[in-house]
Amino acid sequence: MLSAEVYTRSETDLRILFKISDTGIGIAPKKQNEIFDNSTQGETYLSSKYKGTGLRLAIVKRLVELMQGFIWVENEPGTGSCFFFILPFTIPEDLPKQASEQKNITIPADKSLSGRILLVEDEPVNQMVTKRQLEIWGLSVDIANNGSEALIMYDKEPYDLILMDICMPVMDGINATQQIRDMEINKRRHTPIVAFTAAALAGDRERFLAVGMDEYIAKPVEVNNMYKIISKLIKTKSDGK
């Protein structure tokens, strides 16, 4: 099964997330890297099961990378495989632009930011894509899978900013934010927390700010907006304001 969706979009470009899934035998964890790094090894494993020539996924990976994208696989043996790849596309200038209240900003191509980010997110695809984008901007990224993990990591390490998903298992982003704000009393420091969520109902931004968050980024992510918010909060923090 093949599916595709817009993952990020700005006024000049967008990224499409493609997903290809099957219901076959799956791929053993130790083989998942080999099928991309060496097509012969992957094909040998597949052909031993089905007497075929294989998919030559090393070639697929190379083609994706030539298009400035990246590819990965997720699966469990016996349950089928899901291959994901993300490709960037430029929006032609002659297409009508969507109305937006935000002014377009230019994101520098080189590493323009510095700082350590805690990304609190339970969805593996969102983790990988967001981490990669933040690292492109020069940021160091740690990942917590839920609010409970975030509390432990925050207690041990000083972060410059926290991207906090709202709906997560174990502990949601609202409770985690409230507990972090309580912990700050003893630590005597304020860490910017940005709501990072698909919630887009009227009043959501105000609700998140009321529980102690500093800003709000909606999913699917608009890259210019995310850059603008993160750069503002990290600069403000470094300036001591």
* Model regions low in confidence, pLDDT < 50 over at least 5 residues: 39-54, 97-106
Under CATH, the topology of the largest domain is which? Rossmann fold
Structural class: alpha/beta
Number of helices: 9
CATH class of the largest domain, anyone?
Answer: Alpha Beta
Radius of gyration from CA coordinates: 20 Å
Hey, roughly how much beta strand do the residues contain? 15-25%
Helices and strands, in order, run as EEHHHHEEEHEHEHEHEH
What distinguishing features does this structure have?
alpha/beta; 4-stranded antiparallel beta sheet; Rossmann fold; Heat Shock Protein 90; 241 residues; 9 helices
Strand and helix layout:
Blueprint: E1 2-9, E2 13-21, H1 29-32, H2 34-37, H3 39-50, H4 57-66, E3 70-75, E4 81-90, E5 116-120, H5 124-136, E6 140-144, H6 147-156, E7 161-164, H7 173-187, E8 193-197, H8 204-210, E9 215-218, H9 223-238
Parallel strand pairs: 5-6, 5-7, 7-8, 8-9
Antiparallel strand pairs: 1-2, 2-4, 3-4
